[in-house]
Amino acid sequence: MVIDLDRKSRVVLREGRLVAHRGSEVTVLWSDGSTDDVRLGVDEDHILLATATGGLRHRKFVDPIGTSELVRSSPAQAFAFALLDSSKPTSSKDLIARVKEAFTGDVSALWKRARPTFETNENIKTSGKGASLEYTWVGQAPLDAVSADIAAHIGERTTRDENTVTVKPEAGSAERRADAAPQVADGAIGGAVNSETTNKGRGSAHSAEDRQMHPAVELVRATSVSGQLPENWAGVLGSAMRNPLAAGLAVGSLSEDVLQAAVPALDRAALILQALPRDSKTIKAIDALQLAGPEGATALIDAAEAELRGLDSASARAQELRQAKDFLIRRLLSSPSVGLLSLDTVLRATREMETPKDAAKKGEWVAGVLAAVIGAMDQDSWKNLALQDKSAVARRLTSVPLNASGSRAHVLGWIWRNHPADLADEMWWRDVEFDDLAAVATTPLASALESDAIASTVVKPLVVKRLESATTRRQLLRSLAAPTALARVMDESDVQRAFDRVLRDDNIGRAWLVRLRNETRISELAHQVEALNRQAREMTELLGKAQEAVRLRDDRLHRMEEKLGEAAASTNELRESQSRQIRIDVMRAFAGLCAYVDGAADSQSAQRVRERVRRMAAREGLTPSGVPGRTEPYDPQRHDVIGEPPLPNTPVTVTGIGYAWGEGADEIVLVRALVERS
User: Is 43 helix (H, G, I), strand (E, B) or coil?
Assistant: First the structure.
C-alpha cells in the first residue's frame, strides 16, 4: 500500500495500491480509481510512504485507536502484524521497537505474554537460538481478511461514483479494524463536506436525495434496532474517526431515543458520537477518554484539527465543525481520567476554546482541566517541560480569578509544593490584585506569599498600590485588616501617609486620629519615663561596680609599679653591661683593622689592602654602597654630594664608596657614598 499523510498532523489523506515501482518512483492506483506516478518521501505538506498491507504500520496510520486497542487485547496478533512489515528475519528486540511506535504501554511485558502464541503461528518461521533468535513471515496469505478487503475496496472504487456511500455487511472477523480505504461521500469521511447539503437534511438521516446515508448514521441506527454491532462496525468506526467532526454532525440528525437505544451495544464505537454538536444526557454518561485511551484521544484531537485545517474559517461549514470540535474536546477532557493525557495534548486541545461569549466560564473549565492534568504529573515531567508550555499554562490561568478554592490556586499550590523556584516568575501572578492575594493568604499559598522572592516582586507592589489608592476609611481599614502574609510588608510610613490622605477631609476620622495621637503620645512619654528610671537604676548599680573595679585596679597598679621599679634597676645594670660589651667588640674590630693597615701599608699594594679591608668589613656584616665612577640617581639617604645638593633622582657620579649594615628593612646606612654632579 501507499499512504498519503498530512505532514503536520500525520492524518491519512488517501490510500492506494502500489502497482509498480522503480526505486523511490512508484505507480499508485488510488482509492478513487485514479492512477498516479509519485515519489516516496516528504514533499512540502505531504508524506508518501509504502507499507505492507494490513501490517502494524499500516494499521497505526489508518486506525490509531483500534491499533492501540489491538495491542492491548491481542498482543500476539499485534506482534504478527509487526512482523508482516518486514521481508527480512526480525529479532524480538526489533519487533518490540515496532510495536512501541503504536502503543505507549509496557510492550516488553506484552511480548513475554504473547511469545508462546506468537511462535506457534504457522505463518511464522523461527531461526537461530538464544540471543540470535529471529522470526520471518512465510505465509502466502495475509493474517486476516483485512488485506483482501482493502484490495477489493480499491478495485470497487474505480467503478463507483465517488459521491456514493455503500455500507453493507460483509463476512469475516468481527474483530476487523479500520484497515479499508475511505469509501465515503461528500459530507462523510474522506470527502469535502457541503454545508448546504448538511443543513438541508436536518432531522433526517439523509443529506439529500442524491446522497446516501452517512456510515456513522447507518451504524448507530442499525445498532439501535438490532441491539448489537454489525460485522463491519470496526471498518466504519476507523473510517469515521479520520473525520470525527463530520461524523458528529451526521449523527446529530438522530433523535435522543435512537442514541439511547444504540449506546449500550456500541461500546468503543460510541466514539463516533463524541462530536455530536448538542448536549445529550446519553452521550454525557459515556467516558470518551476511557474508550479511546490516551493515545486514541490524542489521535482524535489531531484528526479534528486536520479536518478544520483546509476550510475557510468564515464559511458556515467551518463554524459547524468548530462547534462540533468544541463538544468533542469537552467530552474528552471531562473524563475522570483526564490526568492520563499529556499536558501538551490538553494545551493544544483547549487553544481555541476561549470565546468572548462565555470566556470566564470556559476559562474556569480549562483551568480545572489543567489543574487535574498537572496534579497527576510527577516532578520530573514538570521539570523537563519546555518554558513555552509553562508559559502557555500561565496564560490560560490568567483568564480566571485567583481564589482559595479555584483551579488557579490549585495549580499554583502544586507548583509551590514541587517546584517553588518556578513560582517566583511573575507570569504566574499576571493580572492578580490585592484582593486576590488576600483570598489565598490564609491557604497553603500563604507560605509562598511570605517567601522573599514573591514578597518583594508580587506582594509588596500590590500592598503599596492598595494603600495609595484607598480613598475612604472603609477601604483603608479593610486593607489594614489583610492577613499576616500581606500586612507584614506594610511600611509604617506608607500607612501614615494613607491615614493623612484619607482623613484630610473627614472630620470624624480626623478627630479620632488626633485623640489617638495624643493618647499615643502620652503613652509613649510614660513608657519613656519608665525606661529612663530603669536606666538610672541600672547605671547606679553599674557605677558601684565600676568604683569597686577601680579600687581593685589601683591596688594591682601599685603592686605592678613596685615590680617594675625593681625590674628597671636590674635592667639598667644589664643594659650598661651589654653596652660596654658592644663597645669593646666594636673597638676590637677597629683595632684589628688599624693594626692590619699599619702593617701592610709598606709591604702590600693598595689594591690588596683594599680587598682585605672589604673582606673584613663583609665579615662584620658591612656591605659597600656605590661603585666609584658609576652614575646613579641621587638619593640623599645614601649619598654625600660635593657642592650644592641636587634634586633627588638627579644623575650623580660616585667618587667614593660608603657602607651599610644589615639587609632589607633592617638596613642602616653607616657611611654614605661620596658623589658629585654628573
Answer: strand
